[in-house]
UniProtKB/TrEMBL annotation:
Gene3D superfamilies attached to this UniProt entry: NAD(P)-binding Rossmann-like Domain, Regulator of K+ conductance, C-terminal domain
PROSITE patterns assigned: RCK_C, RCK_N
Keywords tagged on the record: Ion transport, NAD, Potassium, Potassium transport, Transport
Ranges of residues in domain RCK N-terminal: 1-117
Residue intervals passing through the bilayer: none
Domain of life: Bacteria
Organism this protein belongs to: Streptomyces hirsutus
InterPro entries membership: K_uptake_TrkA (IPR006036), NAD(P)-bd_dom_sf (IPR036291), RCK_C (IPR006037), RCK_C_sf (IPR036721), RCK_N (IPR003148), Trk_Ktr_HKT_K-transport (IPR050721)
Annotated protein name in UniProt: Trk system potassium uptake protein TrkA
Domain RCK C-terminal: 137-218
Keyword Ion transport: yes
């Protein structure tokens, strides 16, 4: 997979290193000569250019990229890069870094953003996830389709403990994608039983989050279909 990363600072280089280890083809783009540190990520391609300029993106052959990551420290730049990547080059997946939480509302499909990653929000979510049992924690927002990646640790008192996944009437627009049980990561099947203490990861429409939290957290008289 070919991935272009706009912003070759510490964040961009770190992302590049991780993706290179997973076998992807990486292009790092930055307009600051001081940011071009080929020796730090020698396996990547490097381009000294302004990622907000069409001529630069033509040179980068952005149309050949499967993913573009806007990882600069400037939200305005990240929005422009995202919009150009999606509208001018038809990049299938655009991921953008949000530096200022006040700007998070802008990072949506109107600006070409498929996934917006807000470091402050993610850090606070991880803190909540570490201390919360029975409370739904939003980990990541997918701008396209208004869906979120959410986590909830199944409490001891939940009536769903011991229930098979296939017997639960989940809310509409909700999908259980992973069960984390101790050190194990499980891909759920209909026959798997939920256990107290399970960390459940869902992709869910934002409008269904409250319904999902009620289903998992509150002891109910009926849990099956």
């Amino acid at each position: 997979m070919r991935v272009a990363i706009a912003g070759a600072g510490a964040v961009g280089r770190s992302i590049a290193g991780e993706l290179l280890e997973n076998g992807h083809e990486i292009l790092l783009i930055d307009k600051a000569p001081t940011a071009i540190s080929v020796e730090r990520v020698p396996q990547a391609e490097w381009l000294l250019a302004d990622a907000c300029e069409i001529t630069s993106l033509d040179e980068a052959a952005l149309q050949r990229c499967n993913v573009v990551i806007a990882a600069t420290g400037d939200d305005k730049v990240n929005l422009v890069v995202s919009l150009l990547a999606k509208t001018e080059y038809g990049v299938p997946r655009v991921v953008s870094r949000v530096n200022n939480p006040k700007n998070e509302w802008l990072f949506n499909e109107s600006w070409g953003v498929d996934v917006a990653v807000s470091t402050p929000r993610l850090m606070s979510a991880l803190v909540e996830e570490a201390v919360s049992v029975g409370d739904l924690v939003r980990l990541l927002r997918f701008s396209h389709g208004d869906a979120n990646l959410v986590e909830l640790t199944l409490p001891e008192e939940s009536a769903l403990a011991g229930t098979q996944v296939g017997d639960v009437q989940w809310p509409q627009d909700t999908s259980l994608v992973t069960i984390i049980r101790g050190t194990r990561v499980l891909t759920p099947t209909r026959e798997d039983s939920l256990e107290a203490g399970d960390e459940l990861l869902f992709v869910a429409a934002q409008a269904r989050e409250e319904e999902l939290e009620d289903l998992l957290s509150v002891r109910r008289t009926g849990t099956g279909r």
